[in-house]
Write a structure and sequence with these properties.
The chain is of the alpha/beta class. It has two domains: 381 residues, no CATH class; 86 residues, STAS domain (Transcription Regulator spoIIAA, 2-Layer Sandwich). Helix content is 61%, strand content 7%. The strands form two sheets. It has a five-stranded mixed beta sheet, with helices on one face. Helix 5 packs antiparallel against helix 12.
């Protein structure tokens, strides 16, 4: 045995660090896999299946060597809506189609283009998800049923929390969830020896211990068994792919899962000095994992920054750590599935409330408002639309606003008027002259005195589209027809010449 270990360490010099890191990632991933599954309205074991696939399949593939994949809180709200609307058998079809679409995009080398998506849209998307996630999981903490729509969740939440205070079981459930959140918040202040245990595991473990010791009446995770929970989608479920709503959900899954994974990869690259992410290969790896998860009827996966950061900070050097973490999840699901039955649901809800709060960039929003108010407004608008309407429409609105803002900034145009009281009036144009700013420029030019000669200098323009050129020439002809000297136009690429009336 000792000889085998020496041989393994000689062939894989970083195996010791990767082995230790894999245990840390496993302990972080276990409660999150279960919590995301329960919050998504599917059996808890399906969260473990997605985590296992993320380790053993996506973990083995090329792309980003140190980021870890699994079920993510960012897709919880969308998965819950999909399961409610289309049913659990169709979820596998949605995830399978998402994976195949990701593989196609990776093969077509579209992965790098996801970096062109406005960061404000992505952060607004995550903030909206965080708000809906917090609202929904607070109902679980209070042992109450959550309304279906985002606005209703927010409106009825105070009443649900107040109502829980007047009943024994809901109050107990609420206290267990609140205690879990308190442990998560305060864990960073614990002694260094205790902080070796990941905060989510410590919080859920303590909640389970208190629940068992004091025989508290709270809901716990239902155990179905790993094989009993894995249900590949039946052939009839694939007929739903002709439904516009199903196709829209696939697009939403693909957009959100891909963007979150690739943004996570960029963040992980900043945490270590190892090989950089190959974005197209990473997209193929995520697609392969999602395709297999769909075939097994499990949850969709993304790269998860919480687990990935834990992996890097624990000293991981190669992708072996994330593969090993998948093995530990598989062993737990196969050998100790009964342990899930001791986990209180309000404790998992507390973990997700805490995770949802982390998705809302309050400090970043303040800084963004000071420096780039347009981006801050896009972030807020995206989040509000996700809460008020739905995930898919909210993201589309955010992308549309981002495009409009980019077009507006690309058409930035400045007009300077120099009037010395005698001689010609000088008008200087700077920037990009497009049809978007044309009405304002024409209003300023038409306000110039008709009885004075005008010199229009356009050499400061970087771009002059056909609509603007035509409109400015027409204005020059009208102004010259008033009986004054012809407007002298200095075009961006030619010498000054008079424009004849």
């Amino acid at each position: 045995m000792r000889t085998m270990l020496r041989t393994a360490f000689s062939r894989h010099p970083h195996l010791r660090q990767d082995f230790a890191a894999s245990l840390v990632v496993f302990l972080v991933a276990l409660p999150l896999c279960v919590g995301v599954a329960v919050a998504s309205g599917v059996p808890a074991e399906l969260g473990l299946v997605t985590g296992i696939v993320g380790g053993l399949v996506t973990g083995l593939m090329r792309g980003s060597s140190l980021q870890v994949s699994g079920p993510a809180a960012g897709l919880t709200v969308l998965v819950l809506e999909a399961v409610r609307e289309f049913g659990l058998p169709v979820l596998g079809v949605l995830v399978l189609a998402t994976g195949l679409l990701q593989i196609l995009m990776g093969v077509l080398k579209l992965g790098r283009w996801f970096r062109a998506i406005s960061v404000s849209v992505v952060e607004g998307m995550l903030a909206g998800i965080g708000l809906v996630l917090i609202a929904g999981q607070l109902y679980s903490m209070a042992d109450a049923a959550a309304p279906a729509s985002g606005p209703e969740k927010l409106v009825r939440l105070p009443g649900a929390l107040v109502g829980a205070l007047g009943s024994a079981r809901p109050l107990t459930s609420l206290l267990v969830g609140a205690g879990t959140i308190a442990v998560l918040v305060l864990w960073a202040r614990m002694p260094k020896q205790l902080r070796a245990i990941p905060a989510p595991l410590a919080a859920v473990g303590l909640a389970a211990l208190v629940t068992v010791v004091f025989s508290l009446r709270v809901a716990t995770v239902e155990v179905h068994g790993l094989l009993g929970s894995v249900q590949p989608p039946p052939p009839s479920a694939f007929g739903h792919l002709t439904d516009v709503g199903v196709l829209g959900t696939v697009v939403a899954f693909t957009l959100i899962a891909s963007a979150e994974s690739l943004f996570s990869a960029a963040a992980v690259d900043r945490l270590h000095r190892g090989p950089r992410t190959e974005y197209d290969r990473e997209l193929v790896a995520q697609g392969a994992g999602n395709a297999l998860c769909g075939a097994l009827g499990a949850l969709p996966m993304t790269a998860v920054i919480v687990r990935s950061a834990a992996n890097v900070r624990a000293g991981a050097r190669t992708k072996a750590s994330r593969v090993l973490h998948g093995i530990w999840l598989l062993l737990f699901a196969a050998l100790l599935p009964g342990g899930l039955a001791y986990i209180p649901i309000p404790a998992l809800a507390g973990v997700l409330v805490y995770s949802g709060a982390k998705l809302i960039p309050l400090r970043g929003l303040v800084t963004l408002w000071r420096e780039h108010r347009g981006e801050a407004l896009i972030l807020v608008a995206t989040a509000v639309c996700i809460v008020a309407v739905s995930m898919f429409e909210g993201v589309l609105i955010g992308l549309a606003l981002s495009v409009v803002k980019a077009a507006w900034e690309a058409s930035h145009l400045k007009l300077e008027i120099v009037d010395k009281g005698a001689g010609p009036v000088q008008a200087h144009l700077f920037g990009n002259a497009t049809f978007l700013r044309l009405p304002k420029i024409l209003d300023s030019l038409e306000a110039l005195p008709q009885d004075r000669p005008v010199e229009l200098d356009m050499t400061g323009l970087h771009h002059l589209d056909h609509a603007c050129r035509t409109a400015l020439e027409s204005w020059a002809e009208r102004h010259s027809a008033a009986g004054t000297e012809p407007v002298r136009v200095t075009a961006p690429t030619e010498q000054a010449r008079p424009t004849e009336p």
